[in-house]
Amino acid sequence: MKQQTQPKKPGRNEPCWCGSGRKYKDCHLPLEEAHRSEQLRLRQAQDTLLPRIVEAAQSLPEELPPALARFWEGKYSVDQLAELDTLEDRGSERFLIWFSFDYANSEGQTLAERLPPAADSGSFVLEPAERTLLDRWQGVRLRPYVIDELRKGKGFSARDLLDSKVHRVADSHASKRLEIGEVIVGHLVPVETAFASAEPTYYLAGAAAHLTPDTAEKLVEYAEYIWPIYGAANPMPHGTT
Ligand SMILES: [Zn+2]
Q1: How far is the CA of 4 from the centre of ligand 1 (A)?
Q2: Residue 233 Cα, ligand 1 centroid: separation in angstroms?
Q3: How far is the CA of 32 from the centre of ligand 1 (A)?
Q4: pTM over 0.85
């Protein structure tokens, strides 16, 4: 099916932008509202979940130095972790998120996968929205995307540079800071709503690296550090070097 574009938000009683012939309020409006509120719920949960995960990451002092060396290719040491947010664009936050969700320890598990499950959470008790976010985020890996289509303040389409799959991202917050053709390296977490028939929608979780379209070389560096995480059980698609 041909990809529909969404030029301008129609009025509630006007025909839907998708061309179905139905009124907007009976077609895409409720779906878009559900996506928006779920995305906001996840984003709010992120604000409280991430500091707790960062705290958990800092309780693993023996795992941090080798991970930091790999992420920044030996450029920085653990003592510089506090300054990294200013030395590099959100450098500390991006590293700690990658360390928590992508970096596997010697047993092949990420920190996020080692956090206690809901049934056995001990002192690590999460709010329902934080738990939802953590469960969805655990299955997501850091990947490079190019912005194909942009609806400022609403969302964008991101094409995976490794497998060419296009993801529809309903993220009003992130869409304001992006440009068409820009390359981002980030986590696209699924946004699920009660609309089972809806096409899959995502939101950009955590801090993404923003790269200009001519940074192919830098992207290869990123591919190199995310590469080992996939391992034999979950190989990367070929043609990515
Ligand atoms: Zn529609």
Answers
A1: 10
A2: 39
A3: 10
A4: no
**17 C-alpha to ligand 1 centroid (Å):** 6
What secondary structure does DSSP assign to 46-107, as a single string?
Answer: HHHHHHHHHHHHHT-TTTHHHHHHHHTTTS--GGGGGGHHHHTTTHHHHHHHHHHHT---TT
Ligand 1 centroid – CA 31 distance (Å): 9
pLDDT in tens, 81-101: 889 888 888 888 888 888 898
Q: How far is the CA of 200 from the centre of ligand 1 (A)?
A: 15
Domain extents in the chain: 24-230
pLDDT digits (tens, 9 = 90+) for 86-144: 888 888 888 888 889 888 877 888 888 888 776 566 677 888 899 899 989 988 888 88
